[in-house]
Amino acid sequence: MNEYPLNGPGSQPGEGDGAELDILQMPSGMMTYAHPGLPEPEAVNGLEQGLSLLQQLNRQLRDYRAGTLPDPIDLSGLDEANRSLVDQVLGEGEVSIVLDGVEGSRIQESVLAGVWRLQQRDKAGRLVADRIEIGAIPREVVTGAFEGARDEALLCEPLPPGVLNAPPLFAEINEYSRDYQAGDPSHVINLTLLPQTEADLGFLQQQLGPGRVSILSRGYGNCRISSSGTRNVWWVQYFNSQDKNILNSLEITGVPNVACAAAEDLADSAERLEGILEIYL
């Protein structure tokens, strides 16, 4: 299990009104999966600092247990050569995260599932923070997703023209979002299977409000996950290879499970990193 109990019922793709509506824009510049180009053993001579931090990461992965939160590994003291070594070993994986309100913040899962790289740059593009964190999802996402969010979705009246089927959903959304506790199963509202017009979906977006977290996951196809401005309510959208929205849903949970690494993923990452480091040690 993940350290944040996020499992819940899923939904199957289907066709319906509003299927092509892109509810929330994902930030530009998100990175996608890329295998690391590992350096030759002789190329790491003199890079003891980078190797030492990778060994520390390996120990954390080996000792990881679901429910624990190992201390982040600070990379800010690395010089360019040692940082390049860490970059090459970790690579860039399938999940990218942007946290609005934190200037220059970027969170990228590595090719080792459950190993996250968190960086922050100033306005001039200079790196001011750089660390590694392991777990299902970075703690900053869990604690920051609904910072300042409202406790319930507000149903304004009179309704805008064309809004017909969204209003009955508000009671369901508010009931589950208000009562949600960590460890509860996710509650999924599959909007693709409901008779929602574009006006309905736009009204839902407006009334739920904008959120702080945007996630792009390519592990299950192209999945875009965005927190809303209403506590515990997320937009989860799947797109096909033509970037057509094939599943549009609301998920009421801590963080949708599709964005998170499982304990089994971290165990596999421990084995993979162990194998990589054997080349150099």
Note the topology.
Elements: H1 48-63, E1 73-74, H2 80-90, E2 95-99, E3 105-109, E4 115-121, E5 127-134, H3 139-144, H4 169-179, E6 187-190, H5 198-208, E7 210-217, E8 222-228, E9 233-239, E10 245-252, H6 263-278
Antiparallel strand pairs: 1-5, 2-3, 2-7, 3-4, 4-5, 6-10, 7-8, 8-9, 9-10
Biggest sheet character? 10 strands, antiparallel
Q: Regarding quaternary structure, how should these chains be classified?
A: single chain
Q: What share of the residues does DSSP label as strand, in percent? A: 15-25%
Radius of gyration: 20 Å
Rounded mean pLDDT is: 86
Number of helices: 6
What is the string of SSEs from the N terminus onward?
HEHEEEEHHEHEEEEH
Tally the beta strands.
Answer: 10
Structural class comes to alpha+beta
Which term fits the overall shape?
Answer: elongated
3D structure, described in words:
It is a single chain. With 281 residues, the chain is of the alpha+beta class. Helix content is 25%, strand content 22%. The protein contains 6 helices and 10 strands; from the N terminus they run αβαββββααβαββββα. The protein has helices at residues 48-63, 80-90, 139-144, 169-179, 198-208, 263-278, and strands spanning 73-74, 95-99, 105-109, 115-121, 127-134, 187-190, 210-217, 222-228, 233-239, 245-252. Strands 1-5-4-3-2-7-8-9-10-6 form a 10-stranded antiparallel β-sheet. α1 runs parallel beside α2 (80-90) and α1 (48-63) runs antiparallel to α6. The longest helix is centred in the N-terminal third of the chain and has 16 residues, at 48-63. The two termini are 32 Å apart. The relative contact order is 0.22. The model is unreliable at 1-34 (pLDDT under 50).
